[in-house]
Amino acid sequence: MQPVISITGLDKTYASGFQALKDIHLEIYRGEIFALLGPNGAGKTTLISTICGLVSPTRGRIVADGHDIVTQYRHARERIGLVPQELTTDAFETVWNTVSFSRGLFGKPADPDHIEKILRALSLWNKKDNALITLSGGMKRRVMIAKALSHEPRILFLDEPTAGVDVSLRKDMWALVRNLRGMGVTIILTTHYIEEAEEMADRVGVINRGEIVLVEGKAELMRKLGKKQLILQLKAPLQTIPEALAPYALEPGAEACELVYTYDAQRGNHNIADLFEALRSAGIAFKDLRTEQSSLEEIFVNLLREQK
Fold first, then answer.
1. Which residues have a Cβ under 8 Å from the Cβ of 112 and sit 6 or more positions away?
2. Strand, helix or coil at 186?
3. Which of 1, 32, 237, 270 is most buried (CB neighbours < 10 A)?
């Protein structure tokens, strides 16, 4: 798969001596939704700002859609749209003028048809003549996205796109991001909401203390680092787990009549049919069963715990 962003050996050290980014190597592929996760202060915004040319790297190279962000800054920046976390707009300007002005900042000729297309796609068309001060927080967030798309970028960065918005609007924003990807835009988002990454992302990157801890496809990440549990509801409680079942590492469940088997991709797996046969041979009968699987949030928390 072709990378649209390629980062090699990236460092960022500020004048104070604080090293915000440490030897970052990362490729983001064309047309994907990539979620960058990390705790506060991990380096997410610094990394985005550096890729977008707003922060100068101390060392390393970044190529965006075939253009070096230092030596070919103008060409690289034309291909990138950025929606910052903060809502920074002229409160008394109209939606139409705000978005049109952003297009002009990139030296693009006026294109009312393109502006209309964006505003309609973002459900802003009926607000085009409204002053920004009259809009809700969610609508202002949509205006920020419209501004970022005004110059027709192929890469869009969303820094905490649903920060401060309610749950229903958050789901609307998820649908919007998918639509943008459908238009051929590569999406890179940072988020504190793990369910946001779990819902939308094709791949997940975890950054902590300025270092990329892990980059993995979401499904593969769940397979490799997640765990699935099989909870058996027994017909009668067990006083002890028979020694013959030791290879299955069974554990008592939350209830007295529960027995838990953990399927862990990191350590391999037993055949479930063999487990059932071992239970039958040990004289243990069960009346029901259910499965539970790790969430992305649990994987994320465990990864960060291992880093300490």
1. 100
2. strand
3. 32
Looking from the CA of 87 toward its CB, the CA atoms found within 13 Å total 17
H helix intervals, the chain = 44-51, 73-78, 95-105, 112-121, 137-149, 167-182, 194-200, 218-225, 272-281, 296-307
Q: In what order do the strands lie in the sheet with 67-68?
A: 19-29, 3-13, 59-64, 67-68
Distance CA 162, CA 190 (A): 10
SS3 36: strand
Structural domains in the chain, CATH included, are 3-222 (3.40.50.300), 227-294 (3.30.70)
- pTM summary value: 0.73
Quick check: helix, strand or coil at residue 292? strand
Structure tokens at 300: 């994320």
Sequence length of the chain is 308
Q: Which amino acid is at 131?
A: A
The single-letter DSSP state of residue 268 is: B
Per DSSP bridges, beta strands 258-264 and 251-252 are antiparallel
Tokens coding 42 = 């991990």
User: What type of residue is 40?
Assistant: N
Split the chain (308 residues) into runs of 10 and give each run's mean pLDDT.
92 94 96 89 91 94 95 92 79 92 91 93 92 88 90 90 69 80 89 75 89 84 69 85 84 82 62 81 85 68 67
Contact 12, 207 (CB under 8 A): no
* Structure tokens belonging to residue 189: 């988002």
Angle ∠(233,239,241) on CA atoms, nearest 5:
75
Among candidate residues 169, 207, 171, the one with its CA nearest the CA of residue 188: 207
End-to-end Cα spacing for the chain: 34
| H helix or E strand, kind and range, residue 263 | strand 258-264
